[in-house]
TrEMBL record:
Homodimer. Belongs to the uroporphyrinogen decarboxylase family. It catalyses: uroporphyrinogen III + 4 H(+) = coproporphyrinogen III + 4 CO2. Catalyzes the decarboxylation of four acetate groups of uroporphyrinogen-III to yield coproporphyrinogen-III. It is found in: Cytoplasm. This is Uroporphyrinogen decarboxylase.
Amino acid sequence: MAYNNTFIEASFKRQVDRLPVWYMRQAGRYDPEYRKIKEKYTLLEICKQPELAAEVTMLPIRKLGVDAAILYSDIMNPVASLGVDFDIVKDIGPVIANPIRSAADIERLTPIDVDKDLSHIMETIRILDHELQVPLITFAGAPFTIASYLIEGRPSKSYIRTKEMMYGEPALWFALMDKLGDMVITYVRHQIENGGKAFQVFDSWVGALAPQDFKYYVLPTITRIFDELSDLKVPKIYFPGVSSGELLPTLHEVKADIIGLDWRVSITEGRLRLGEKFAVQGNLDPYVLTAPMDTIKEYAKDIIDQGIQSPGFIFNLGHGLFPEASIEKLKELTDFVHEYSEQAIRA
Ligand code: CP3
């Protein structure tokens, strides 16, 4: 099988024959085979076994026919190397043993040591680099999103303690952003050196901020991350997460290639807000997958019709897949995006 480079081509805004597609959380519980593996091992246990983690990464490539793989890992994994004790708890998410609230807590965070603490993840990447016929997207959690777990101690709806530190103790906040920014830069560089072909910075929860707060408290660190990684010749994705439409006009200076959109802005409107520079990725509401197939296709068509208006579009969801999603519908959707976009591009 020939190497499928469509994702890379679209990332750099080159003309493609058909649109590339991949799904956030494409390695996951909607797949019975994955659920079987999860009966034996936790997420963190899978990540510690490079052969198995590589196998899990490849499941959706074989089953769905997507155009990119995303490393099976979690945004919390590198945080262990900073000295943070956490677990990923079933039906909750990341839970931190000792949430980070004080200057002393932040001072205790050590610099990331990839060789010592994350060699298993680098090994998984090397295996995948050898096995895959599609690009491997590696990733890191963005500083705000990681900070929200570290400070709240668990998933939050309000981000009350996170905002309390941000507004009340800005020096602490920026010290934490600096440390997490350093973590992202070092971790991503290692991932690409070990065979990652693109990377995504997941800022899943930063849409909780007003645009002016995002600009002041978060954007400088995001800008620094992409500046310091700008020598890497791979597609760089920033995903500002859910409800991020109002943040898009602030991203002009970020040296990313692709911005991930959620479904609350259309592809056309997202491009207008972002300007010419970026390719865009998105943005089907994952819960549209609960609809009948004809309805799903209508939504996909609308996204594709907008996406192909200019080069630089990657079909994805606006957020991660949920466990109840149907694997059959996902396969049909993937085929539909390929077939419909090929016809539409040719026309
Ligand atoms: O397929 C892929 O996308 C690759 C693997 C991946 C996971 N997490 C595995 C995982 C990726 C890219 C992530 C990123 C991640 N992790 C994000 C950013 C993306 C997003 O959804 O916004 C966030 C916020 C996390 C933190 C996290 N990890 C949460 C909130 C949860 C619980 C949510 C849930 O559905 O239970 C996790 C656990 C997690 N990470 C699961 C998976 C497949 C589900 C539980 C499991 O299978 O063990």
